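Protein modeling request. Please complete all fields; requests missing the sequence field cannot be processed.
Requester role: graduate student
Desired output: 3D structure, token encoding
Chains: 1
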Amino acid sequence: MNGADWVWLVVGGGLGAGARYLLDGAIMRGRKNAFPLGILIVNVLGSFLIGVLTGLGALVAPNWVAIVGIGVLGGFTTFSTVSSETVLLAQRGRRDWAWLNLLGTLVVCLAAAALGILLGGLFPR
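Delivered output (125 residues):
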């Protein structure tokens, strides 16, 4: 990875984080103390997209896999927010939502990534 690619990776990370903030905010607007559906959707979408990118394999140049996968999608998705939201849900007495957030995120994101890899692998090599 050269210097320009590294700059694109950093810019992509910022764009991904900004997109996460906007999408989560749009979904959660007016839903204070609700189930963190916005972050769940962000992580499922990001897992699916990185799955597609992975499934495309050699069709995508390695530097663009890093820029889009690590930069944009790495900035877009967030495990740390899932972790803190899960703890906050449990602290508010919503242990049912906490478990749903933790296990639901794991299961649905894995399924989304697997589907993305499958679909990405359908493109002719």
